[in-house]
Amino acid sequence: MNEFELINRYFRDERPRAGVALGIGDDAAVLALPAASQLVVSVDTLVAGRHFPENAEPAAIAQRALAVSLSDLAAMGADARWFTLSLTLPEADEPWLEQFSAGLKAAAEAYGCALVGGDTTRGALTIGVQVMGCVPHGQAISRCGAKPGDRIFVTGSLGDGAGALKVLAEEHALDTAERDYLRQRYYQPMARLEDGVKLRGVASAAIDISDGLLADLEHICERSSVGARIEVEKLPVSPALRKLASVKQCFQWALAGGDDYQLCFTVPAACIAALEALRADGLKAEPIGEIRADSGIECWLNGEPFVSESTGYQHFD
Ligand code: ADP
Ligand code: MG
Predict the structure, then answer these.
(1) Which has the closest alpha carbon to 215: 260, 169, 151, 157?
(2) Ligand 1 close to Cβ of residue 5 (< 6 A)
(3) For ligand 1, is residue 104 a contact (CB within 6 Å)?
(4) Measured in angstroms, how far is the CA atom of residue 92 from the centroid of ligand 2?
(5) How far is the C-alpha of 260 from the C-alpha of 190, rounded, in Å?
(6) pTM of the shown model
(7) Nearest ligand 1 atom to alpha carbon 86
(8) Cα 119 to ligand 2 centroid, rounded to whole Å
(9) Percent of the chain with pLDDT over 70
(10) What's the CA gap between 84 and 35, in Å, rounded?
């Protein structure tokens, strides 16, 4: 099977797609943005043995690659539209490609995001996904807009990614449903695209949590020239994680564990009513603290200073 047969068999899709004037098969894709909108673009690369185990299930690798990339669009409040795939393969392994492309197709459909091109080369297994989305002009949510007094929120629950690594590595007395939940949270993280879109015009700043809440909130703080105070007891932890470990361990994972792909965002006082309306309408987001003028992130647990175990992180300046 040569490169073109491979592309045609596994990745070409002739169905008409929104905004796609020309897709896979030409020198480049031609795409139409909705009127009065801006293009939002991001790329992420996953390297086998570094970002996922060599022998991970091909469908899970595909789903993870797309979700991780789309998570950045979610944090910008963008509507996901299209993506390109840069695929480096050691060989044209047909069963592997069959499962990989099926997983990718299912995920792309779930997110309403169309594959419009890519590149295929031989080498160590590496998957690059470039995602493209759009926002109404001027409405992208950046990391720069947080102001002292803004409330800090996170979507979903935190710490599941780090907890899942424990479950997958060790035997725990967890029943199957909880084990499955955590495994899924790790291998099939969901990009919070719908949440991001709802937060346009409400959040003053946002970021997706890939490296852990403290590390990622620090990026908002740096870019916005502010600090933060977190009330650790307010961090949302899933019931499955709570069964797995002590409450303090759960909070450590929630603060410093990576791979959660939730959104952390800030909301000014003037927009709290709008945020509450979104929550009443089903947005899963919890308040966890407040932006402050002083730099650094302070963590408090029930009124006492709380020290995160994660190394290399300064909690108090
Ligand atoms: P070129 O030599 O002009 O770069 P390629 O041979 O790399 O073209 O690709 C041919 C067509 O197939 C292009 O439209 C490209 O976008 C698409 N393509 C290549 N690899 C992939 C892939 N892994 N997934 C989706 N589309 C791909
Ligand atoms: Mg090419």
Answers:
(1) 260
(2) no
(3) no
(4) 17
(5) 9
(6) 0.94
(7) 23
(8) 5
(9) 96
(10) 22
